[in-house]
Design goal:
By secondary structure, the chain is of the alpha/beta class.
Length: about 190
């Protein structure tokens, strides 16, 4: 049985889909888990190939996560072949930027296990998964206006939205409201 390495998987993609834009990104860490970065315009076609190619049979997505970089967001999928008992293969796709062009295709039509995990990446990072069957918040409430795992996220100091205030949050909230109630006593007055 051929080992499913990223290099082998890339060679299979390039042979079957020569027009697809996919590159190997080396990982110099001790884990050495190199990744395949696929252009978002080719992501769905490449994903279908990865799942259906008889030499690969990457039939299960275990982890889908988001990553916030300085100039773009990234959706990361860890893929396994249950049939071949191999993996993971790391597949990444990137947004155009991190402000206005934050859309990548949903891979839930290929791997149903990506459903809740894409919703989580949407909720916490703001990655919009085009074609997702039910893209709505999963962990934060619908009225929550931001994405708390983004690097530019600023936690509010009043926590009036906090549904179950406790400990340090209560102290921070009390400090906030006491400075609002008595602006002359605040250090900036």
């Amino acid at each position: 049985m051929t080992a499913l390495t990223p290099e082998f998987v890339l060679a299979r993609i390039q042979a079957a889909l020569p027009e697809a834009r996919v590159e190997l990104v080396p990982n110099p860490s001790p884990s050495g888990q190199h990744a395949l970065v696929v252009d978002r315009r080719d992501a769905l076609q490449v994903a279908q190939f990865l799942k259906n190619d008889p030499e690969l049979l990457l039939d299960y997505a275990t982890n889908v996560s988001g990553v916030d970089y300085a100039d773009h967001l990234e959706a990361v999928y860890h893929l396994f072949s249950i049939a071949k008992r191999q993996g993971p293969i790391t597949l990444k796709t990137r947004t155009g930027d991190r402000a206005k062009d934050v859309t990548v295709p949903s891979l839930t039509p290929v791997w149903k296990s990506a459903d809740f995990q894409e919703r989580e990446a949407f909720d916490l990072f703001g990655i919009r998964f085009e074609g997702h069957p039910d893209l709505r918040r999963l962990l934060m409430w619908e009225e929550f206006a931001d994405h708390p795992l983004r690097k530019d996220y600023i936690a509010p100091d009043d926590y009036e939205y906090e549904p179950t205030p406790h400990g340090a949050i209560v102290a921070k909230s009390q400090a906030h409201f006491s400075s609002v109630a008595h602006p002359a006593s605040s250090p900036n007055a």
